[in-house]
């Protein structure tokens, strides 16, 4: 699967604050598919299939879960963003109330990692597909999440960590720096400064989480959009610009992101930004 230029969308109403509902829809409709090549590469390398019991941390609106489930995997998704999780339920749990019945072997969607339960088969694969490397505390947050999730995995289970590639290989890096600049000097800026990915980010997370690295890879994930409006909405849906929106206002952030996208605007009006993401395969 490769990322595609997304269709045009109706312009959302500008807001001085973060509109979590609109942002979640933009994530599901515009941005989430940009990482599909990463999901596919990992699943192919690990031979994800019917024997896989997967726990997806930061599952978003469920695209990575859908791809794994299509391969026959038994999937559980966790996300603290309730708006994204609601969209994932609509996608994966099409029952009357968006939930599977008691005892169902179908997908599970949760707000926090499940605690180990007696008689429950452990997970054989944990994925963390939200790339780290854009905020100074994103590695710390991932370590905390892994601390809650890894006890549910079996011995010598696989854990996949992901991060942004080197800034010189990621065209989107320059656009993300808009968030840093606009949020500087505000309380909201704390924890959101784009410092750029470092070579050993993922290995450090693995070490701190008691995981053993066992291979890695890089995947090209170009970000392609039908127009500048879709690009702005998709990028703001990542949550990386939230502090900038709070420190200024949404209109200002949208304007400056659009200006930063100009070098990536093609003659037909589409936007194209090559990026590389890295993944690290670990064992518990």
Walk me through the structure.
With 284 residues, the protein is an alpha/beta fold. It is 35% helix and 20% strand. Helix 1 crosses helix 8. The longest helix is centred in the first third of the chain and has 12 residues, at 20-31.
Descriptive keywords:
two-stranded antiparallel ribbon, disordered N terminus, 284 residues, single chain, alpha/beta, seven-stranded mixed β-sheet
- Strand fraction band? 15-25%
Main beta sheet: 7 strands, mixed
The number of distinct β-strands equals 9
Helix content: 25-40%
Q: How many DSSP helices?
A: 10
Average of pLDDT = 88
Order of helical and strand elements: HHEHEHEEHEHHEEHHHEE
Radius of gyration: 19 Å
> Given the C-alpha coordinates, what overall shape results?
globular
Uncertain stretches of 5 or more adjacent residues: 1-16, 187-194
Present the secondary structure layout:
Layout: H1 20-31, H2 36-46, E1 53-57, H3 63-70, E2 74-78, H4 82-92, E3 108-110, E4 123-132, H5 138-149, E5 153-164, H6 172-183, H7 201-208, E6 212-220, E7 223-225, H8 228-236, H9 242-247, H10 250-260, E8 271-273, E9 276-283
Parallel strand pairs: 1-2, 1-4, 2-3, 4-5
Antiparallel strand pairs: 5-9, 6-9, 7-8
Helix pairs in contact: 1-8, 2-3, 5-7, 6-10
